[in-house]
């Protein structure tokens, strides 16, 4: 497990931001993929308007302070930026639990999020649903919906939703 | 009045950010409407690019530290997120004052913003203009422009713009 | 005058679209500037999500059919694309007229748009307002608002707004 | 009923586009609301980058050819544009049907879409779900998910999903 | 080869557009991947603002008329839409040619685009560069730049750039 | 020189954010141009979705704490906002160096970025390339690519890339 699965507040998080206005857009796919390998928590790209009519990008990376240096080294190496900025964030994360449900096309993991012990989030795993959709040539949305439905049934049986 | 109408610097503000990549876009309208009822200062959505070609959203909520917990509870309840991040911001707010002007279609509030006692902002209230535009079947832009013009006349008479 | 200033419907317009996912964002400023020199009617950039997590751009150029070939040659030359697509559009353009108003900081052109002889649009020219704002060190918004106000006064005197 | 509820192909549709770079963003809410009253099929705003570093908007309106003139009149009246462009589109629309399901919080409409008589779409109505969520103070997502689940049960009972 | 590699003008292209305001953003990755398998020419997502404050998406698919029906069937099946619109486009495509260059880390394909027999485009293949970057643990940008440089050398030797 | 050209970490940076939902988009060009004159480090615009279906903008300005007050005064003066928020950021900036290369069309500056003495960034200056492209009527991309190539040759001769 890469993350603490209990509910917790993490005040050692860092948001890294990089303004990019001269990088080949093809590079972002590789960049995101590699950044997740470093164990960062989140990566996303905001398309912005920069000076001189440039359709720029701001890369946002959320990670723990302890890997910040390594992540920044990588960003300097792989992007075209001359400066990286960062600021601390606090993150409140829910308790996470995984259950497995049986759909008519096969097993699917469902991720559960709990706040103070109570279930508040509940979502089938995309990768599992996609695998089943591909194998059985059924619409992804049908698989996803059924996984969700089966999950609700399980929760009701366990009396976890009152 | 929900806010301090004098010019002030508020260093107890919090920016809450929530990365969402699996939520039905229909839910945002309700979410924003409800968040404003909690007394948050600002809410906006940034459309971003997340991993695996997902057109995600980052919800930004600006609020006072004292309501942060309540707001976060609501966000966990109404969105699909498993984590919420936040960081402190300082906000400099202008003195606000409201005057009423008379357009040819009826009364309209005009909001004034003052910096060190001097008027720097000056804008007709959208809701009033829209009401008059609807009732009198005139273009909203005509109503807005006239309300602004009448406001300037009042300011000139009061010798508030030198 | 580069354009027909009477109200008219132009059914010889072409919308050119170019999907770009590997071009340095710095190049767009030059590209737009040059495209306008060819006499195109409009140019804008839409930031989009392309395959493989690429923050791509779709360049949109609106021009008359008669200059399409020349414009496309230029786009092939200056961008990185291997294909350009286009489709016909019809454009309804209002009658345009320019008047000059006198603000307290100097003269400013105001553009008027007429539909069936009746004024429906009315806007100070940005470049003029900006020049006055720079020279007199006054907020651009003050200059713009006053130019608009003076324009309305002129229209009222001429009984052009009833 | 404002629309043909059988599956059909409509080759009399028009896409209207309006490039706006000098309009108060507050006006869009009113504009969209009013456009839907004219019976247009779809309205959306694309945020784009225009010349001179302007964060412009392109308003897209999809409507039937027979109301195009009326819609364009309204757009000239309510926006700041001097030109409106349009081009024909063909639309393939699914057969639509509405059923009503009973959730634990009350009734909710579910919209069904059929392709060649077979159900392919299936979605609870947002407005109904939102009403129930507000009245019963339950998360909107819970209501939406349950309405969907109940709908699936009904479809299964009717043997409409094989 | 899936496409005509000579320069040509294709007037049998179709742009398909789908407005989506209630679909899980996770589904787009799968959707795009599958659409390319059908042989469509381009797919991209435009993030837009829809009614009721919805951060919607417009999916754009460019394909040949002959596969339009199959593509639309798939879109109805995999997305949540009740209507798909389309309009014809003409596409001008350059002649394409592929050469292979030798970088210090290995071979890399370079794609060349020709207009009337003259080279106007010239770009290393992303997938090749990425492979080399991963294998040799060098920055992707270094690999890409060197592949481009080697390609220019080859072109100069062949006297293809005069 | 306006900035420290050695590699350094600057923990006195401030990110200023301004949410704007009622400003004429034409004003942003002037605003950005002027902000850079104050010596701010970066300015960019994020297009967002605000309440009531408003296509708003969030202006982001990165500057040193010591000019924050002056910059905020200017923003209050030139925009329509009633409140400006800010938060501290730390910025890690690379060592910067400029070399001059000789292309077949003339001289061009190339900017180099160094991390711990080692070259990691390397990019031709846009303004120089654009000037040469205009004067010699050659594609900007050709000029840019050649300037980069010449720079690499120089680095190799100096044995700066091992």
Automatic annotation (TrEMBL), chains A, B, C, D, E, F:
Domain of life: Bacteria
Keyword annotations: Nickel
PANTHER family linked: NICKEL INSERTION PROTEIN-RELATED, PYRIDINIUM-3,5-BISTHIOCARBOXYLIC ACID MONONUCLEOTIDE NICKEL INSERTION PROTEIN
Protein name: DUF111 family protein
Lineage start: Bacteria, Bacillati, Bacillota, Bacilli, Bacillales
